[in-house]
Amino acid sequence: MHHLLTTTAAGLLLLGSAAAQQLDDPTPRWVETPGVTEFTGRLIVRPLQVKDLMAQGYTRAEALEINQNATRRAQQWGMKEYVADTDETVMIIPDGQDENSMSAWLMATGDYQYAEPDWLCYLTETTPNDGGFSGQWQHAKMKSEKAWDFGFGDGQFIACTVDTGVDLDHPDLEDALISGYNSASRRSQANGGAVNDINGHGTATLGCVGAIGNNDYGVVGMAWDIKLMPVRCTNNSNGSASLSNLTNGARWASDNGARSVSVSYSGGTSSSVQTTGVHLKNEGSLLCWSAGNGGNRVSGSNHADVIIVSATNQQDSVTSWSTYGPWVDVAAPGQDVRTTTNGGGAGNVSGTSFSAPIVNGVISMMMIAHPSGSPDDIESLLFQTCVDIESAGQDEKSGHGRPNFFRALREATEAEYGVTNTIALSGPGSGNVGQNVTYDWTGAPGNSAWEFRYSLNPYGSFVGGQRANIGSPSKTIGTGSNSAAGVGSITRKLPNGARGLRVYLEVFANSGGTTYDSNMLILNIN
Description:
Strand content: 25-35%
Largest sheet: 9 strands, mixed
CATH topology of the largest domain: Rossmann fold
């Protein structure tokens, strides 16, 4: 028997054992996560659909009555919205009840597909809880929080800095450390080679790559969850090292599983550095080298297989003391960047010594996002996604520009999953509720199937198994087939319940198993 409740009192009197059990359940079904999904005092409710009821043996008239009574029952305490397209009611939970008790009671009637919280949802931009994070300007400049929506690492990837060693007991590093090597003594750590930090410089560079994030301590590296390999290249307290010890350390790291290696020393102009870069590439690794801090111009050393890194400041300009020339490939934060220090702390440091490991961390995350990509593929994507901060195009101070961590990870992920940005989407950037808006596109494969989607989050989701630009959750609001010329269009009315929203739009086309996507458009609904 299906009942229509006509008053709040009648509805609450029929709160049955299922709801009571839910109230007493120490592990309720719906649990808030502050800053992620929070209760709003509303439920999204959908009654059993007519076709499903008819499949159970009800006549069409009976099925319609059950469906309509269930909708009215959900609406009797007040509603925010009824969505005709999906037969959903956004209902207001009555006083004295909550998301768990009200959902349990509604579901106990047997008349509903679901009764779930109308969650308050947040952008999935990731901010770590490390106390020193707010002082690390490099992350804000490089869009690290957006980049971390793609992940923090995979727990197995190995990155290395060839330097003065590491503070083996540093709380922001020790859990990520794996056995390393001392290239000055040509002895692995497992065989007695010392890798403790003899100078302090190495702890700072390794923290730029991968200081552990979200551990409520210290600072954050570019990659939160990777393995860090310390290679100590010197036994001199002043940190000086021979070039052969530097290149030997880089080769040993690559030979022993490090995919991304950085060296924060002078000497990068040497031909041996280029030879070492070729060796690493042949093993599936990449080598970064700091440009130097002399403020001088270098020519004749434009290494094709080593990424040379200059330093930038908080104004996104190359510092006056960065060595420059046609050999520079990219520029990265290097003035007053905050990182780990010897003795378990954190501090501000300056130099291209710290720009190179920051790029090392970006490369590490790109390789994790695009495991099928070759070192040349990763290098190319890094250069393509840089922000041009000096003269237009590639220049002698910043090379291809300053890496944008978010763009680099997005493009690396899309390259892995086969999404190709080839479709040009155009349409209005704002509209009023009740208004029809039209979006047109060109450049899709001819006669391909298209899917038009929107999201409240612009940062990275999967669509049809492919990585898209717009975020999760995203929703399809139209499908169809493109013309033979690869042209398509969609018109939709902006719903009343969308007032005040900012939504992100893209169109996707599928042809021959490959997904193609468009540029992302922003629509502000008034």
